[in-house]
Batch of 3 targets.
Target 1
Amino acid sequence: MFCSTVSQDAGGLLCEPTERSKTFKRSVSEYTDHSERFKLKDRTFARQYAHMYAERLCVMRPKLIEAAKKKWGQNVRTKKLFELKAEEKVVVVGTLFKHMELQPSILKEISDEHNLMPQPERAKFIDEADELILEDELQRILLVDKLDKRALVTGVVVAVYGMEPDEDRGKFHIEDYCFAELETQVPVPVKEKDRYVALVSGLDIGSKSENMMNLQLLADLLSGQLGDEGQQEAAANIVRVIVAGNSLSQDTRDKNQMKQAKYLTKKTTASSVEAVKSLDDILVQLAASMEVDLMPGEFDPANHTLPQQPLHRCMFPQATMYPTMHCVTNPYDFSIDGVRILGTSGQNVQDIYRFSCLEDHLQMLENTLIWGHIAPTAPDTLGCYPYYDEDPFILPECPHVYFAGSMPSYQSKVFRDSKGQKVLLINVPRFSQTSTCVLVNLRTLECQPVTFDMSFQEDSFEGEK
């Protein structure tokens, strides 16, 4: 791993300087961007979301029928909901809709405006009275048994095997179910040398508890300014850094200022302006020595709905002077040295957390891989662009690395599907809370966290007082 490549000469920093110093050249890698499907060609918001659900079901149906025949036999019958007959065991493919009594609605905003009793604040919106309903192009039916309604969310496309009993019409009793298999994974080319991609998220610049010292340590490590020659040689193998969203803090958004009259805020400066300048100061240090990809996040100055478009380059006048500075989309899909990497800034996982009983964020990320969809809750509870003839969040290819940013803590695991394909799952923690980034080895497809700690104890200053 990265630590094992560091020189064993621990006293290198304490030696006398020499006239000849070593120079380490940054490793070069082959890069391909696959995020074209996330870039909006037109911006038409007059369409309904029904087209997106229909397209999702249309694309996923053949995959699910194939998975159903593989699981329950080639002779299993598949039907649509309007073709169902009582007491007939069949396979039905459809989109799940989770009816939730506690789901937030526009009534909350109305109650705030008219001083009515507001809805209580909740971290989760699940309830025992929730129901799972299966929808296709023409009908819907209530699902009973087998499926865990508390763990599933709206928007997941599934194949269910069962029947509609004659004495319980209008309800489909499930005996078994399955999801679509992952697409075929492209083999990873054999590499002789270790190269790394750095993942960092949740810098939260502009927050009240920001620690710029740890952030500067991160920039020094990645740019090769930190440590002895052995550490600098190891840092030269970091070929790219991905800043996965929430570079600015939620504190930079002043909701009260938006409600005030313009003449009261005429001479005030938004707190996000200084935060963007500080972010630019960090990015220019990185872009001066390596490739940098900046993804937007929930609290960054970008469009709120998914897919989030690249941040405008004019916000970073220093960093964008270098051709190595790239503003990319969220989600972000790319290949580097033949390794396919897909990731988000974390909104998809956080939304599943709110509308399911799951507590493990890595399990939620794994579920989106199993379901074959990056953001199944969009557009129901997660805002997204109203696509008409496509759903870009469907996984077109099985990635080698799949990550989510702005997570509470660092987690990772290797997921193996029925074909034996391996996917490295990574939860990238919020740097502002954990001071941790993640390094991914492109040769071995292993990852490791790197934590920075710069703290001063009050006792060390008592002698100076």
Note: Residues 261-269, 458-465 have pLDDT under 50 and may be disordered.
Target 2
Amino acid sequence: NEYKSYLRKMAIDSYIQMKLYTLTKRQFLFLFVIFFSFFFVSIFIGWVGPSVVKETEVDKGSPIKNGVVALISPEVSNAEQQLWLQIEVNLDASRKEPFIEKTTYSIIPIKLTLYSLMNGTKSIINASPASHNRTLKCKNSDSTCDPITVLHLGFIKFPQYYVEIETSEVLMNGSTIRPIWTTYNAKFTEFELWFRFIFIILSLFVAFYIFQSLRKYAVQDWSIEQKWMVILLILVMLYDNPSFPLLLLVDISFISVLDACFTVTFLSSLLLFWLCVYHGMRKAERHFFSFYFLKLALVGVMWLVGCVILSWCAVNEMNDPSFSLSQDQEGFLAIKIFFFALLGVYVLFLLFLIVRAYSELHNMPYFDVRLRFLTTLTFIVLFISLIAVIVRFGSRSILEDSSVMAITLRWNNGAEFLSFYSLFNFYIFTLAFVYSPSKSAMNDRYKDNPASFAMLSDSEDEIYRSGKKFVYDDEEESM
């Protein structure tokens, strides 16, 4: 019975011998060294690269008269990608009391009218500006309040902009506003274009290598990891975003939506990949409803929520430059809570599948090493990602006001940009390499000898069970 159970296990995804089975311990160590070397070199290149953003102060302070203040942006270009305007309010001493002595938070109405400015001629952009409430946070010991974001342009269409800000005349008259104009650094845009291009070329090269190595075999003979590599290599190219240059050239909201959906789709596919592989190692028959449906439903809802939120932001910012998700804070807060609840369910589901896979397969040759390698590399990637997120957003709540998040979601430096893109690209490349067919795969099809795999044992003793040595005979060949 033990021998038959072993054969049934070996019948699952053992048709094509992968490089994973033939690597020695030293080669595995060398593989991890290469992975970390490329990753840290990428971070170093990003660290010494150009700064990400450029902040400009056109004037030191503009007084608010009759509840209105006018501001002129610095000259900008398409290469600077996007434009943000933050205002730092310095309260009039006579009006400091209602803000500071009673409360550190106050709600002020802001209506922003945007004009294009070309050769001294103004042309209105948003003919019917909407009024939005903004939260003004002031320190008890100072009249200067924290900056608030009042404008975000996802595409720079004109060389200069003129902005009129209307606010409460009763509360704000006599106060001054210090504008902070922020754009991407044009040199960083060039830096980003080159590295996205490099990652796309590398993805194409690895995809071509995998397709060429697998085309010799029927698709039904591919392991579940090999099938997923074909999908992930296509999606990682979308993650690198070949349409990125269009974001600099075309003022169409669809391009911004496409960029956001590419990222969400790739990350969602990774979540689905982990669920399918950890479950698929234990299951030979993978019918759609019994195997894929629940996983697709869980990850699909998370994907849909992510795409809807990002698309909603992109479309609304095109129509209303002062739009912020904080205007629908209750609805947005509910969506975020729902998303994190789904993420919690996903984590529990994945941990359950990992525990079941280890409990059933950890003593099985081939399956043991497949589990250990995927789990080790995946947890390294997740740990690095978690550290990067904590360093980037650790001082802020995940449920904070989205107007703050709008300014913090930019990269702080090139190292942050390259760390995320290089991490996920090199993760997929490493998996693609170890899951590709070995040189002897054609000869060893259906005859994967566990004793030949060096990582499992340095001798043949470990493939004995109950005093008997497992061998491959005609019964296994028939399977």
Note: The chain has 15 helices and twelve strands.
Target 3
Amino acid sequence: MPNSGEKMIHSLENDLDDVNVEIGDNYLVRRSDGAWHAAEVIQTRLNDQIGGRAEYYVHYKGFNRRLDEWVEIDRFDLKTRTEETTSKEVHSSLTDLSDGTDRKITRNQKRKHDEINHVQKTYAEMDPTTAALEKEHEAITKVKYIDKVQIGKYEIDTWYFSPYPEEYGKQSKLWVCEYCLKYMRLEKSFRYHQGQCTWRHPPGKEIYRRGTISVFEVDGRDHKIYCQNICLLAKLFLDHKTLYFDVEPFLFYILTEVDRHGCHMVGYFSKEKESPDGNNLACILTLPPFQRKGHGKFLIAFSYELSKMEGLVGSPEKPLSDLGKLSYRSYWSWVLLEILRDFRGTLSIKDLSEMTSITQTDIIQTLQSLNMVKYWKGQHVICVTPKLVEEHLKSAQYKRPITIDTSCLRWEPPKKGMKAAKK
């Protein structure tokens, strides 16, 4: 006599026979948090790593593509197939300019809400050029085949598609060496590699060490495979990253935590050796297990310390991810508020830029978000009171980042013309 579990499986199989789930169909799907949401089926596959069972790649309507995922049939509500209007209603409820009461929220508040809650912009909200590029990008990266990646002791859920070679890119899970970043399809290959790999830190030069925090500078020209591997890994967690194989024009700064076993990668940022646009950072990532611990702001602060030593002002390459925007806005606000709190006298936007290496445009936008600047007689004028500064600094979003001890930084700006001499 079959038990209840067998009955449920049999029932699901009967439902599946009755309802043929196809690409483009819309159903209510149970997310990992237990809530039901309207979702569109994007792709299907038979997953060998779970016994060849069928899986369906779904996009939850109105949510960032980061939350797209592979699910099995038991997470579908097969009885009720949702119509397209349901999806629109769900999206409308997420983007409505109200806060659940009779009071309307401002567009600035809506923007912050959308960034924090990963609400995706519609094509109608974008300018035509951005919308066209976004459509092309979405078509190429629509399906994320790699669900999980094992890095050292961490198994991490991935967020986005990454263009790993075909035999690796269609696996539901990859294993990655946390030291040399070699990627593998099989756990037994990973275990064997762990016993053979002699690397215990990134290649290149260690330029910062304070306590258990260490930073290595890696030249993409000298360590091409390592830098390509870090780009492929990063793309699993970044939507709009496009640098995968052309790594030679870039320097990579790898943040690690050090213990008796070695230097464990926490995150990194890259920057062009020569940026025509004045960018001091091309790409930044903190691996998910280390997020919300101040490491992202540490990397941002580190990029500005290098700019100060070069005597330059800089800005990150656009577009930033939603998490990148939040991190930068928080960092810029904290730096400017600290200066405005302690400074006595008159300060101009130009003065702040020279003190911080932050561009004047980024400073103006940050001060505008803090309601600390006015446009008067053709120029931006800083308008602050000690009380306003203190109120902002008490806010949780402006908490002090991990500070950089410049006495522990062993780095010199590259000499102009050195690149040309090496060619």
Note: The two ends are 77 Å apart (CA to CA).
